[in-house]
Design a protein that fits this description.
This protein is an alpha/beta fold and 181 residues long. The protein is built from five helices and six strands. It binds adenosine-5-diphosphoribose (APR).
């Protein structure tokens, strides 16, 4: 699996699945969630409402993930996950690890081979980009070790230069570790 980071807008990326940093309601918000809903069109909100009427009547738990179609997006699928909110005292790194692990589980379940993910929890939810990057990179490579060959690519798509640098640092640290093995 190739892992790399790029600066950009995740709503424009041509991959099989993009990850959304949603909230438990699944009914939209600001940040990357708002951008994804705007680009996917109203059918995305309708699909999320349908999930709330059926399998997820109580909403999506922090650290869990669920798929919808991508509708007007270039990506076929949106994998919605709910990051921990530091401002609400959700400071356990295991919750953020779970976001990336579960998002990749769900991506593989729908048959995606290429996935793009944002810096979940690094915006409104208040986590430091370096912490998000370290956790995301570690979780993604750990997932790949357990599911070898299931995904071709995980691309971290970061909106700003600071987040891109954080992910590049985390990725280069990881690749140094792998080279030493
Ligand atoms: N593409 C890629 N990354 C983006 C985009 C975009 N179009 N727009 C924003 N981002 C980046 C932000 O700069 C930040 O680094 O995504 C990262 C996550 O920020 P948020 O979108 O604020 O997500 P999060 O911190 O997980 O907070 C989730 O925000 O809008 C709400 O509904 C959402 O309540 C939930 C909360």
């Amino acid at each position: 699996m190739r892992t790399w980071a790029v600066q950009g807008d995740i709503t424009t990326v041509r991959v099989d699945a993009i990850v959304n940093a949603a909230n438990s309601s699944l009914l939209g918000g600001g940040g990357v969630d708002g951008a994804i809903h705007a680009a996917a069109g109203p059918q995305l909100l309708e699909a999320c409402r349908e999930l709330r009427r059926t399998a997820l009547a109580d909403g999506l738990q922090v650290g869990d993930a669920v798929a919808t179609q991508g509708f007007d997006l270039p990506a076929s699928w949106v994998i919605h996950t709910v990051g921990p909110n530091r401002h609400a005292g959700e400071t356990d790194p295991a919750l953020l690890t779970s976001c990336f692990t579960r998002a990749l589980d769900v991506a593989a379940e729908v048959g995606a081979r290429t996935v793009a993910a944002p810096a979940v929890s690094a915006g409104v939810f208040g986590w430091a980009p370096d912490d998000v990057a370290t956790i995301a990179v570690r979780a993604t490579h750990a997932w790949d070790e357990v599911h070898p060959g299931m995904l071709d690519e995980v691309r971290f798509v970061l909106f700003n230069a600071a987040a891109l640098e954080a992910f590049e640092r985390a990725l280069s640290g990881w690749h140094r570790v792998v080279r030493r093995r």
